[in-house]
Amino acid sequence: MNDDRLADEVVLGMVARRLSEATDKPWHVTDGMVRGTGTVGVVLRDDHTGSPGHLDLDFVLNVDRPDDTTISDCVAGYGGTTEEAVDRAIQLWLGTTGSAVFELLSQDGSFAGHFAPDAPDGFPGWHAIHGGITGWGTGDDFLAVQHWAMDNPLLPRLAPVLGSTFERDHLIGIKAFLGGGKDTETTEIRVNGVRHEAASEMLTELDWPRPAEGLSYARTFMLLVHNETE
């Protein structure tokens, strides 16, 4: 993969194509963003890493009110070319963040699961939507971390750490990325696009599998819709 980033218009075109395929509805690039039906849009923000396969993407539920309807995230892809890495990043984003947002819009359980504020596997006090859990890696156990994440709900583990750190009482997006192998590991929790150090450290301390051979990674996205205790 070369070090040259793709032009924003090219990336947005790739996002529009993947969104159209995922939703079976037309998405198109206009005025520097990807627009779907109604008020929803996707904005490509300035990359904070410098990596050509990394994207900073915002779902904006109402483009006329971006301040309180934006769900921020970032994602990195991999591949032999920059185009392959960017396309993979978009697919990872759609399978995790996208599934949570699509479920918020559809409210029918077809894209992701809902958790009530008092659900054991949810986030106390909040209605939550848990997006897809995607896994990848190398070797025979490349899906080990994905399977662990499916069997060990993260929301109740994150709640004591994240607690009252939120700046608003609705639409809190939480990205979790974890994985590695025998000699390397990576963990990251981002809240509304910003790395949360304490939660990331907590994730490091959990007993998710570290394969002796090969690598195993998982990514997921959880959306806290609204605080029902306010």
UniProtKB/TrEMBL annotation:
InterPro entries found in the cross-reference section: DUF6348
Top-level taxon of origin: Bacteria
Pfam families, per the entry: DUF6348 (PF19875)
Official protein name in the record: Uncharacterized protein
Organism: Streptosporangium saharense
